[in-house]
Design a protein that fits this description.
Rossmann fold, alpha/beta, single chain
Length: 214
Amino acid sequence: MGRRFVSERRRDPYYRAAQREGLRSRAAFKLAYLADRYPLFAPGDRILDLGAAPGGWSLVALERVAPRGTIVAVDPRPVEPIDGVEYLRARVGDPRLVERLGPRPFDGVISDLSPRISGAYATDHARSVDLVRAASELAHAVLRDGGRFVAKLFDGELRADLEAEIAPQYERLVRTKPPASREQSSEIYLVAWGHRRGARPRRTEHDGAPRPDI
């Protein structure tokens, strides 16, 4: 890890706030922003958290669905235990994962999956699209009618086609960039709700947040 990266991270107000509040990662503020803006969680929900390590999103989601709600966290990396969170060590795309998740449907699927960064933007964007597509396919298999889906995406030329694939499965689909996302990052989030199979495509909307440079 380079000295410049460490120095910039220490000056990052979201990173410092996450450390103070025990949120495990600055990404927690991104999900909190989305949850305040869109109908992602309700008390008692069962939520599937993909790419869960180190656990920041699980903590935010758990707070929103408590006291009766549950979180199932999935990641190939180890995650420090969190009371109220069930952890499965697995990769999204593993055909056995749906069976391991059990027959009970989820109210929401949240995905903060990121590809291994190559430094070549076209490659990283394509890998990010593949991860969102895999998360979306899993969500379509495990969500209840009316369920919700959130996924991080590195923006780029493949985004429109990806949105066109996902949009028919939901009543609404929007894209946004939380304030906690670094300004220079191409990171955006797709947020969808009203899950239903066979729905007609709806127009993808932009919430007015600035488009990232790509």
